[in-house]
Each structure stands twice: as structure tokens, then as C-alpha cells.
Design a protein that fits this description.
This protein is an alpha/beta fold. Helices cover 49% and strands 13% of the residues. It has a 6-stranded parallel sheet with strand order 2-1-3-4-5-6, sandwiched between helices. Helix 10 crosses helix 11. It is elongated.
């Protein structure tokens, strides 16, 4: 798994590299001190996961996420930040981040998050799931709970499968999967796959 570290502090980048140096499954493919440098590097460096800081001068992590959405093909982004403000977490996910963990996370969790995101899944540090699913609590549910089939679809979404793969796995059409996902979003009061995964974590769907 090739990662690219983006942080404006040299000491932070060195600390992340030190955490990963003895992990044979992960290779640090490069590092960037700002978002502009990252965007330039992606044309020349093969990367499986971008480790991205949120608060950086010149071009913030949120601006980087927005720019990556406009690229034809971009590696998944794992936000690694010291900030756990609910608005920041939600905005990062809405802009396309595949994961969000704090810089205080230990080595094992960082490695797990990298592999999950690099494998096409989503990773949210446990303590950060609450702000993403707060809207669920804001709308006391008078609706039915998720069916066993809807729960399975949500599990497959969390595993990083696309609609076509889910349809193949469950013996449905892509149209049926898309319709089911829209119903799941409505039931959970969310608007994206990442938010649905976060809500699923809270509700124990993946237990």
C-alpha cells in the first residue's frame, strides 16, 4: 500500500513516517508540505492512499478534497487531523474523504485505517462517528428499522463495494441496488454513502 503524506509540519510528516517504517505492507511513496504540491505530485507518483491534514496554509485540506473531486481519477483520502470539530468532520466526508482519524490515533489504528481506505472502504475513528449521525438523533424514528437485506447492502457499502458489485453479490440489478440505497439514506436521514456507513456503525449494523 503506497501512501503520500500531506502536512505542512515537517515534524508531523517525520512522525508519521516513523510510525510506518516497520510496517512491510505500507510504503511511503512521497510527502508534500501543502495541497498544491500534492496535486502536482499525483501526476507523477503512483499512490494508493493520501494522508491529508486539514488545516494548512495556502490550500487547506478541504480545498484539496474539493480539487480532487474534479480530477478524473484520484486516490482515496484519509484525513489525519488534530481537529475533531463536527462541522469539519462532516464537511470532509461530504467533499469525498474516505476516512477521518485524529493525529492522536495509535500506530495500529493508523495502519488499519490506511488498509481499509486503500482497499476501497471507509474508516471513521470511533469517537468521530457521533457528529456524522447526529442528524439521526435529531429525527426520532417513527419509521421502520432497516431490513436484513438493507443491512447487508450497507455492510457491502462499508466494505467498499460499488453498486454493480453489490448487485452481483446479492443477485439484484444495479437499478434495484440504487433504489435500495436511496431508501436506506432516507431511513437513516443521511445524504451520502460515508454518512450511511457512520450511521450503520452507531446502530450496530456491522456487529
Amino acid at each position: 500500500m503506497r501512501v503520500l503524506i500531506v502536512d505542512d509540519h515537517t515534524l508531523v510528516r517525520d512522525g508519521i513516517k516513523w510510525m510506518l517504517v516497520n510496517e512491510p505492507s505500507i510504503e511511503v511513496a512521497g510527502e508534500a508540505s501543502d495541497g498544491g504540491q500534492l496535486l502536482a505530485m499525483l501526476d507523477d507518483v503512483a499512490v494508493d492512499v493520501v494522508l491529508l491534514d486539514i488545516r494548512m496554509p495556502t490550500m487547506s485540506g478541504l480545498e484539496v478534497l474539493s480539487a480532487l473531486k474534479d480530477r478524473e481519477a484520484s486516490p482515496p483520502v484519509l484525513v489525519l487531523s488534530m481537529y475533531d470539530d463536527s462541522a469539519l468532520v462532516r464537511q470532509a466526508i461530504v467533499l469525498g474523504a474516505a476516512g477521518y482519524i485524529k493525529k492522536s490515533a495509535d500506530r495500529d489504528e493508523l495502519i488499519k485505517a490506511i488498509h481499509t481506505v486503500g482497499g476501497g472502504g471507509h474508516y471513521l475513528q470511533g469517537e468521530l462517528t457521533a457528529p456524522l449521525v447526529a442528524r439521526v438523533d435529531d429525527h426520532p424514528s417513527s419509521q421502520r428499522p432497516l431490513s436484513s437485506e438493507e443491512r447487508e447492502i450497507l455492510r457491502l457499502v462499508a466494505a467498499g463495494l460499488g453498486n454493480r458489485e453489490i448487485a452481483s453479490r446479492m443477485g439484484h440489478t444495479e437499478v434495484a441496488v440504487r433504489a435500495a440505497l436511496q431508501m436506506i439514506f432516507k431511513q437513516l436521514g443521511v445524504h451520502s454513502r460515508s454518512e450511511a456507513v457512520a450511521a450503520g456503525l452507531r446502530l450496530g449494523v456491522f456487529d
